[in-house]
Amino acid sequence: MKKILLTLVGLISVAGMAHASNLFSYTATAAPGSTPDGVDQNNNPVNAWTVTLTPPAIAGGGEGVYEGTAFTGDLSGWQEYSYPGTGGPGTSGSVDALDTFAGGALSIGQTVFINFEMRAVDATPNSQVGVSLLNGSGNAITFGIFGGEPDASAPYTGNGYYYTDAGTSYGSAGSMGYQYQNEFSIAFAVTGANTYSAVAGSDSWSGTFNGSLTGIDVFNHDAGNASDVAFNNLTVYVPEPGVLGLVSIGGALLLGYQRRNKIRG
To answer: What are the extents of the domains in the chain?
Structure first.
């Protein structure tokens, strides 16, 4: 990983991205929000996440974080969970884990990547999980899913995962169905001034965003019992020029640019 990052630093210099976010890769070592909760690409301890826990309106429900796996064979890493109160589904707590990108906002050519896995989500309008990129004043780009889709009372009434950005509210991210305990990768690449492309599992789309992308939020909002959400390998990197696609770096699939007939790994 160190060799890869040195190469990426050289690419940034060539591109003249003086104010770009730092290039890094963080791996989980403790519950998100712990001090520290991970290590970087050089095995240095880092405080990657700031965690916000929102208790439910009805007593008895709850929320929390831990590090490890929800079940054998699941993605090992940072974990979020919530469970309902006496009122049943829709009365769970919520969790947000936020990381502010080291060095500043993402620049054109940079990509943010994370491994992601989820379990059950209650079939209520407010129950959802996903990932948002932040612009300093709120969510700039969101990828997520509501429980029990399609649900006429939820903002997104389609099947599968949605995305929201500056130009689209609750649009379909693609044809990928609900990924129960099935790890997949999510990556957002800044392709121009306030434009981006994204890949999440087998879904892909592109769009626009407002402001500067300064951080990321992994959220588990009122998602109910058995709603553990796992995430790991938060990475900001620069792909090589070529064709946008998924490339392998350090054994992980990343959204990047691959040369014709050749993928650098």
So the answer is: 2-258
- What is the architecture, at CATH level 2, of domain 2-258? Sandwich (2.60)
Position 150 scores a pLDDT of 61
Question: Pick the residue with more confidence: 73 or 200?
Answer: 200
Q: By the 8 A CB rule, do 32 and 65 touch?
A: yes
Q: How confident is the model at residue 245 (pLDDT cuts 50, 70, 90)?
A: very low
Check the CA dihedral 160-165-170-175 and report its sign. negative
Predicted model pTM: 0.84
Q: What is the DSSP string of 37-102?
A: -EE-TTS-EE---EEEEE--SSTT-EEEEEEE-SSTTSPPEEEEEEE--TT-TT---EEEEEEEPT
Spatial separation of the C-alpha atoms in residues 126 and 56, rounded to whole Å: 12
Judge whether 232 and 115 are in contact, CB under 8 Å: yes
List the one residue out of 161, 251, 240 whose CA is nearest residue 199.
Answer: 161
Mean pLDDT of the chain: 84
Token pair 């054994």: residue: 251
Residue 151 in 3-state DSSP? coil
Count of beta carbons in the 10 Å neighbourhood of residue 222? 28
Name the phi and psi angles at 2, rounded to 5: -60, -45
